[in-house]
Amino acid sequence: MAEPIRVVVTGAAGQIAYSLLYSIAKGDVFGKDQPIILVLLDIPPMLPVLDGVVMELQDCALPLLREVIPTDKVEVGFKDIDAAILVGSMPRKEGMERKDLLKANVAIFKTQGAALDKYAKKTVKVLVVGNPANTNCLIASKSAPSIPKENFSCLTRLDHNRASSQVAMRCGVSSDKVKNVIIWGNHSSTQYPDVHHAKVNVHGTETPAYDAVKDETWLRGDFISTVQLRGAAVIKARKLSSAMSAAKAICDHMRDIWFGTKEGEFISMGVYATGNSYGIPEDLIYSFPVEIKNKTWKMVDGLPINDFSRAKMDATAAELVEERDTALDFLSHIFCHLVEDEGKCIYGYTQKVVQL
Ligand SMILES: NC(=O)c1ccc[n+]([C@@H]2O[C@H](COP(=O)([O-])OP(=O)(O)OC[C@H]3O[C@@H](n4cnc5c(N)ncnc54)[C@H](O)[C@@H]3O)[C@@H](O)[C@H]2O)c1
């Protein structure tokens, strides 16, 4: 059997992690013959909760799970890590401005990026889930200059899965019959779910999604807004944000990084826009269609883009540029590394207090 790999999940006491850890530990992501050491990182007040998660993982009696290490220290959490799934982040509180949330989270991801740089393997694959995921990912990568930029990506697979599923339900087929939907841009309500290049397998025949759905008004209207606003709809119904579906999407994303995408299929993920053929500004983490082979993603270039798509791709890019500039401006003034959260220290920061 292979040597165990070390996988860290941050925010490990949270609700996404609770749905995610079992799938990872039983081999759904890194393979059924790949032993795993799971490192669970959260903030100090959550350590008692982590103890409960550790007990449950032990009680699952999973043969691939060699060790579980709960910690509140980045130097332990990121040591010799092969895969890092960064879920932990500060949630939006009542009355908190979007900018304040961005500031709190870029501070967290700057610290974690720097810790990855210092302690993780240089081959580490980093998946950022905590919101605002694209910009957090950009900051983490910029803070880890010794790790290749290509090793960083952010989660838009949940949006991708939502889009595939909406089309599948509309056509009365199972979701595996839909391929090559694209999520462009930000994991926010400006994202652009695009099915111009998608195919639906209808009774064994690969059919362009527009022909299979036969409802352009829906595809250009309610379909897009349903996917864009799905997160909010889940929160409204459940009083909690998406967790089961987010965990499933994390598994899909990381498994594709590890084992590659299927021949002739592409998936969506947030990656560096550097060198893209779609006129998206560089130095952004923007969701593109990608194919993956040998643990390396390659953007799917040169797809024809019509005016409808162009406007939507540019709008979500503009939002990301603004987020990036706010984040970088904040970081350029940062003189401190401590964030107070209702009097409790958010882990990882060691000096002064930022007034948010
Ligand atoms: N990209 C996506 O598609 C997607 C989908 C769903 C949710 N999300 C985001 O994922 C994040 C987590 O969601 P959740 O429902 O699990 O939230 P949650 O509040 O249940 O859990 C978050 C956990 O992160 C921990 N945490 C906070 N700061 C930390 C730090 N500095 N280091 C380590 N851990 C820290 C918290 O203590 C908590 O245990 C949120 O930002 C959410 O918006 C993203």
Automatic annotation (TrEMBL):
Keywords: NAD, Oxidoreductase, Tricarboxylic acid cycle. Substrate binds at R92, R98, N131, R162. Residues 156-330 form the Lactate/malate dehydrogenase C-terminal domain. Residues 6-152 form the Lactate/malate dehydrogenase N-terminal domain. NAD(+) binds at D42, N105, V129, G130, N131. The keyword Transcription regulation does not apply. GO terms for molecular function: L-malate dehydrogenase (NAD+) activity. The keyword Nucleotide-binding does not apply. It comes from the Eukaryota. InterPro entries: L-lactate/malate_DH, Lactate/malate_DH_C, Lactate/malate_DH_N, Lactate_DH/Glyco_Ohase_4_C, Malate_DH_AS, Malate_DH_NAD-dep_euk, Malate_DH_type2, NAD(P)-bd_dom_sf. It catalyses: (S)-malate + NAD(+) = oxaloacetate + NADH + H(+); (S)-2-hydroxyglutarate + NAD(+) = 2-oxoglutarate + NADH + H(+). Catalyzes the reduction of aromatic alpha-keto acids in the presence of NADH. Plays essential roles in the malate-aspartate shuttle and the tricarboxylic acid cycle, important in mitochondrial NADH supply for oxidative phosphorylation. Catalyzes the reduction of 2-oxoglutarate to 2-hydroxyglutarate, leading to elevated reactive oxygen species (ROS). NCBIfam families: MalateDH-SF1, MDH_euk_cyt, PRK05442.1. Belongs to the LDH/MDH superfamily. MDH type 2 family. This is Malate dehydrogenase. It comes from Dicentrarchus labrax (European seabass). The gene is LOC127355049.
